[in-house]
Amino acid sequence: MIKFTNTGKEYKNGVKALSNINLNIKKGEFVFIVGPSGAGKSTLIKLLLKEEDPTEGKIYLNDMDITKVKNRRIPFIRRNIGVVFQDFRLLPNKTVYENVAFAMEIIGAHPKEIRRRVPMILSMVDLSKKADCYPDQLSGGEHQRVSIARSIVNNPPVLIADEPTGNLDPETAWEIMKVLREINRRGTTILMATHAKDIVDSMKKRVVAIEAGKVVRDEEKGGYENEV
Ligand code: ADP
Ligand code: ADP
Hints:
Distance between the termini: 32 Å
Radius of gyration: 18 Å
Number of strands: 10
Bound molecules: adenosine-5'-diphosphate
Number of helices: 7
């Protein structure tokens, strides 16, 4: 589903953020991307979202070489990928319902489909009762659940989560992980960049460790750190 082949990225200032990345991620996998700050995790995500282009190698999404895709086609690529950020990024003057509905409106979904689907997704992330609240009336965990709802409402095959629990206390972080795990169980491929050692260690999913722009470890049912 996602394939990096000999992918490298050198920024214009000469920083080599990634080199010789080879990764093959299958449909339905849950993959943690770990590594110290500056390792290249965000760059990897930006390449997938086509916010940056690689300077070497190729990236495939659903067998399509996305490095060749023209700028005007980028929105169609992004429809295949839901994104969740550490800082939530909700629209402050829209309600929970409207934040999620907006993601469907911008791709031109039918109003009837929006009215059917938004309540269903809000129920899945256990936010039905908060549908009419504004973001400033929500807790951190609720914020993140809205942002997850928004990211999956258009049913993307891939979900990217960049430090989704970074601003949350451990208890709330686990609530978010349960939601992500459920989404993954329903078939969505998930890539999650994280520093949350406890979460990575207890989930026992695939772990890709990046250091200084290179994949230094790629393990099924891996842990946050190398076993010594
Ligand atoms: P991580 O997400 O693992 O913290 P990044 O992908 O953000 O790592 O950064 C990898 C390297 O690329 C770092 O050395 C960083 O300073 C550099 N870098 C990131 N973005 C840019 C940019 N836009 N221009 C130049 N260098 C960058
Ligand atoms: P289920 O698989 O039935 O949905 P849970 O979601 O309750 O079970 O938890 C499954 C696993 O997730 C646990 O074995 C544990 O590793 C991890 N986990 C869930 N909640 C917590 C928590 N609050 N603290 C630490 N680990 C947790």
